[in-house]
Every structure is written in structure tokens, then in C-alpha cells.
Write a structure and sequence with these properties.
Rossmann fold; 2 domains; elongated; alpha/beta; 4-stranded mixed beta sheet
């Protein structure tokens, strides 16, 4: 798929090419290999955890994150401890406390521990192969949890699709896709299903903390970044809510199409380019205070633009009521302007996806 192939983007979405978490068998293992999510989207780096302290640190520092994936990390962590001959119960307890709010983590660790202990009891301590069989049982349980999570992800997408109407405008919070699951995620799996069904007209990704997990990760794995606009200059420069420019740069860097949806009336043909777009500056107090309470030290000032401007070169396509215009530049927008007073037909530089 080309970086600027919007038709292909509507037919398929970018997918993370490899799992965010995978088990490594001997002789290279036992180990748990994690996609380091703190380094995305700039770099796809992998961290190999060969013992429980390393995995505990990876969980605490958000190298691996997301409720379903943390469940896998907990289960595979117990299996890792068992394969190493460590104190398995102590390992399960440590992992369960790595992030106490993420209930999947303690749940996955507990299930793998139960499988380990049940297998150990079944063969008895006198059996010289007891430890190996118990470790195999823990690993089998972790793999079963992984398979169940992938199936659950598909079911969530299938059921959730019924909630999404035609031409839906969707807001997604934080990151809920393949980076947090053995499948395609939870909320984002529904969005993907809706996208493939041609039902998504617009998707908003708002920002979340910690570590800016909204746009940073969701834009990395999305197949199409789609925004609105408050004003579009005659050369295709787009003014939109502040933060749009950053998403456009991320999308361009990773070869993800970046499309803008707006009516032709949003194009300001009197504004030749970005310099002619007046960006609204909001009061600094909107940033330094919240609901009347100071959130910054007294005397702090803030630069608070309501919008930023994205250069037309970063915009894959402009979607208006007349169709999809690409490339986005002064020439193609002039074609839209020529027929501005009429809704009949589409200009020659406009293609329409249905």
C-alpha cells in the first residue's frame, strides 16, 4: 500500500506486523519478548525478558501495557518462572503487584499458577519430572489464555459492529488495538470492523496519559487518520484543532494516509496559504487552571493556540460533499472552487469512494 493510496487504505488497515508479546522457547529461551511500546512510533524495538525482575520492570515502565496483554504477560511470566526453576508463587505475587489496577495481570498470573500447582500435585514431588510437567502446564495455560484473548477480540468486534451506524463519527480514547491484545484489540477492534464495513466517516483519537498513549500509539497502528477542519487555505493548508499537525507528521512518517473531511464551504479561497490563516489564541488560564483551580505554579504563563496548521503536502486527500480530492494543492482546490455554487457533478480531479 502506497503512503498516499487512499483507496487501498479504505480497503485494508495498517496492522502491527508482529505480536506485541511472544514466548521464546529454548534454546534461545525460555524468555518473553516484548515490543517496547515506550519507543513507538519512532522505533520498533524488542525487549527480551529472561527473568521475573526484568519482566516486572517492563510492566511497571509500560514497555508492555493494555489490560488483555498484561493478562498474557502475567501468565507467561509465571511460566517463565516455572521453566527457570524459580519460586513460582513468589513470581506470581510480584507480577500481580506490578500494576495493581490492571486486574487482567493478576488474573493471568493466578490462572497460570493454578495450572502449575495442579500439575505438581497430580504427579507428586517424588516424580523427578514433576517440575518439568508443572512448567509445561503453566505454559500451556498461558498459551490457552492467548488463544482465548484472540477469540474474544474477534467476538468483541463482531458484536460491537452492531453499535456502529453508517457514516459513523467515532472518538477513541487511549490505545485499544493490537498493541494491547492477542487479537486486534477491544474498542479499536470494533473500529476496525466498522472501517472494513465502510461505516466509519471520522475517527477521533484524543490524548491520554501516561506517556501520551492516545495519538502516539493509535496513530501508529491505524490504517487511516481522518480529521475535520476549521479552515482550509487555497493551497490546501489545513487549520484544525491543535494537535492535528502532530498527527499528520506521525502519519506521514509511518506511511499512514492522512485525510481531511470538510465541506467546500470550509475552503477559504481568500487565504492563499498558511500565513493567511489567523490562529485563535485562547486565554492562558485555560491551561494553567482547571475549574478555577490552579494547576501550575503562580505566575506561570501559557501559549494556548486553539488550532494548528498542517501543510498541504502532509494531507493525502480532502473529502468534501463533492468527493475525494487528491493530491491536495492549489490546482485541485481551484477545481472545487470553480463549481462551488453547484452540487451537480464532480470536477475532473475528484474521485468518489462509495
Amino acid at each position: 500500500m502506497g503512503a498516499f493510496d487512499l483507496v487501498a487504505a479504505m480497503a485494508q488497515t495498517r496492522a502491527v506486523g508482529t505480536r506485541a508479546l511472544r514466548w521464546l522457547d529454548p534454546p534461545a529461551g525460555p524468555a518473553l519478548v516484548l515490543l517496547d511500546q515506550t519507543r513507538l512510533p519512532a522505533e520498533e524495538a524488542w525487549l527480551t525478558c529472561r527473568d521475573i525482575p526484568a519482566l516486572d520492570h517492563a510492566i511497571r515502565t509500560l514497555v508492555v501495557r493494555g489490560a488483555p496483554l498484561l493478562g498474557l504477560a502475567g501468565a507467561y511470566g509465571v511460566a517463565l518462572a516455572a521453566c527457570r526453576g524459580d519460586d513460582v508463587a513468589a513470581a506470581a505475587d510480584l507480577l500481580a503487584r506490578s500494576r495493581p489496577t490492571a486486574v487482567n495481570l493478576s488474573w493471568g498470573a493466578a490462572r497460570a499458577l493454578d495450572a502449575y500447582q495442579a500439575a505438581h500435585r497430580a504427579v507428586g514431588d517424588a516424580d523427578p519430572g514433576a517440575a518439568r510437567r508443572a512448567a509445561d502446564a503453566a505454559l500451556a495455560q498461558a498459551r490457552a489464555i492467548e488463544a482465548d484473548d484472540a477469540a474474544a477480540s474477534a467476538a468483541i468486534a463482531r458484536h460491537g459492529l452492531s453499535l456502529v451506524g453508517e457514516r459513523a463519527r467515532i472518538l477513541t480514547h487511549c490505545n485499544t488495538g493490537a498493541l494491547v491484545s492477542a487479537g486486534e484489540g477491544t474498542a479499536f477492534a470494533i473500529i476496525l470492523a466498522a472501517h472494513r464495513a465502510g461505516r466509519v466517516a471520522q475517527l477521533w483519537v484524543d490524548e491520554t496519559r501516561p506517556l501520551l498513549q492516545g495519538a502516539r500509539l493509535t496513530a501508529y497502528e491505524a490504517g487511516l487518520v481522518l480529521t475535520g477542519a476549521d479552515r482550509i487555505a487555497a493551497d490546501g493548508s489545513v487549520a484544525n484543532k491543535v494537535g492535528t499537525y502532530g498527527l499528520a507528521v506521525l502519519a506521514h512518517h509511518h506511511g499512514v494516509p492522512f485525510a481531511v473531511a470538510a465541506p467546500v464551504s470550509t475552503i477559504d479561497f481568500a487565504a492563499a496559504g498558511a500565513a493567511d490563516i489567523k490562529v485563535e489564541l485562547r486565554p492562558g488560564e485555560e491551561v494553567t487552571t482547571f475549574a478555577g483551580t490552579a494547576v501550575a505554579p503562580p505566575g506561570s504563563t501559557a501559549h494556548n493556540p486553539a488550532f494548528d496548521v498542517t501543510d498541504a503536502a502532509l494531507v493525502t486527500a480532502l473529502v468534501t460533499e463533492r468527493g475525494v480530492t487528491r493530491p491536495v494543492n492549489a490546482g485541485t482546490l481551484q477545481s472545487l472552487g470553480a463549481g462551488r455554487g453547484s452540487r451537480e457533478g464532480a470536477p475532473t480531479d475528484v474521485s468518489v469512494e462509495r
